[in-house]
């Protein structure tokens, strides 16, 4: 932090059809002490000109934000663009539909006084859940249990999993691992994949990543994002969910080590009592799985799309 109370941190916020809550977030970031070095907004909103004029004109004019428009709707392309443009030593990646406390930036930054810490996952509070001190049993699964660490855990601890809703990372480290994989076209498992690549670097170099509840935020989960989901109450995982899961398991684990995860998801999403009561939905669920598997294999064969791979 310098004498003017400016932290050496660039905030990167991809946004999509959420201008009102985005403006509130920017205002809260601007009031922080210390204040971030810069706030980079990557806007993917379609037909955005009138809305930009209404909500963001003053922020752009007064240099409160660095505004970048991106026509392709992809959170991971947007995040990579923001990281590429960032000037700060630390990059803080946030969702656009979050509420932050007044000491948010300070609590992220204090972690980086330890030079072995390369990334911080701040706590994420959703659905009025508050904090928890309970670790679920599936956290102890071999190979994949780390993915189930609770984002609202109440204690500071070393972790593998980082959440891109509230994540700060040394810019040189995220550049070294290539940034977000743009094959993750939906905001699902994209940060899990990035976390694993950062963790593997940490194991080689003796670095650490931590979960810290102090820089917590409240995630509103407002409409406007882009996540895979189900088709209805019977087909609870669509082709995009399957493609995302299977691509992750294949590209990061060669799938053989995590077959239990795949079988568990097939059991939970396809081999359901509800589907057998209406067989047409069982066949639709199987069809969505096969389409997702085909998409995952296609992505694996064409290779990763690391947006920052060639950035020094």
Structure described in brief:
This protein has eleven helices and nine strands.
What's the helix count? 11
Low-confidence stretches: none
Query: Tell me, what is the CATH class of the largest domain?
Result: Alpha Beta
Mean pLDDT comes to 92
- CATH fold category name of the largest domain: Spore Coat Polysaccharide Biosynthesis Protein SpsA, Chain A
Named at the architecture level, the CATH assignment of the largest domain is Alpha-Beta Complex
Number of domains: 2
How far is the N terminus from the C terminus? 24 Å
Q: How would you characterize the largest beta sheet?
A: 9 strands, mixed
- The best one-word shape is globular
State the order of secondary-structure elements, H for helix, E for strand: EHEHHEHEEHEEEHHEHHHH
- Tell me the Rg in angstroms: 20 Å
Task: Please state the structural category.
Answer: alpha/beta
In terms of DSSP E residues, the strand content is: 15-25%
CATH superfamily of the largest domain: Spore Coat Polysaccharide Biosynthesis Protein SpsA, Chain A
Structural overview:
By secondary structure, this protein is an alpha/beta fold. The protein folds into 2 domains: 6-219, Alpha-Beta Complex (Spore Coat Polysaccharide Biosynthesis Protein SpsA, Chain A); 239-302, no CATH class. 38% of the residues lie in helices and 19% in strands. The protein has helices spanning 19-30, 49-55, 57-61, 75-85, 104-109, 171-176, 190-205, 239-253, 259-269, 273-277, 279-302; strands at residues 6-15, 35-43, 66-69, 90-94, 98-99, 117-126, 157-158, 166-170, 208-219. Strands 1, 2, 3, 4, 5, 6, 7, 8 and 9 form a 9-stranded mixed beta sheet that branches. β1 (6-15), α1 (19-30) and β2 (35-43) form a beta-alpha-beta unit. The model has no long low-confidence stretch (mean pLDDT 92).
């Amino acid at each position: 932090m310098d004498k003017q109370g400016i932290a050496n941190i660039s905030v990167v916020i991809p946004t999509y059809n959420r201008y009102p809550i985005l403006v509130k977030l920017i205002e809260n970031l601007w009031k922080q002490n210390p204040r971030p070095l810069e706030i980079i907004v990557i806007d993917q909103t379609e037909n955005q000109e009138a809305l930009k004029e209404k909500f963001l004109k003053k922020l752009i004019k007064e240099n409160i934000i660095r505004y970048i428009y991106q026509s392709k709707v992809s959170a991971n392309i947007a995040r990579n663009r923001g990281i590429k443009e960032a000037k700060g030593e630390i990059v803080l990646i946030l969702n656009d539909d979050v509420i932050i406390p007044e000491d948010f930036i300070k609590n992220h930054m204090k972690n980086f006084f330890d030079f072995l810490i390369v990334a911080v996952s701040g706590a994420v509070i959703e659905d009025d859940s508050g904090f928890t001190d309970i670790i679920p049993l599936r956290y102890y699964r071999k190979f994949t249990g780390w993915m189930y660490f609770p984002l609202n855990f109440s204690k500071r601890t070393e972790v593998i999993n980082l959440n891109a809703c509230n994540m700060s990372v040394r810019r040189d480290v995220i550049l070294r691992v290539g940034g977000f994989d743009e094959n993750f076209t939906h905001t699902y498992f994209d940060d899990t994949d990035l976390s694993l690549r950062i963790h593997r670097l940490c194991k080689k170099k003796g670095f650490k990543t931590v979960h810290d509840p102090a820089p917590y935020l409240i995630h509103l989960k407002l409409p406007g994002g882009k996540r895979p989901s189900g088709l209805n109450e019977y087909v609870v995982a669509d082709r995009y969910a399957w493609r995302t899961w299977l691509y992750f398991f294949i590209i990061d684990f060669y799938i053989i080590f995590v077959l239990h995860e795949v079988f568990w998801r097939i059991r939970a999403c396809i081999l359901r009592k509800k589907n057998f009561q209406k067989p047409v939905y069982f066949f639709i669920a199987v069809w969505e799985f096969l389409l997702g598997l085909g998409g995952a294999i296609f992505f694996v064969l064409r290779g990763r799309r690391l947006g920052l791979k060639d950035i020094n």
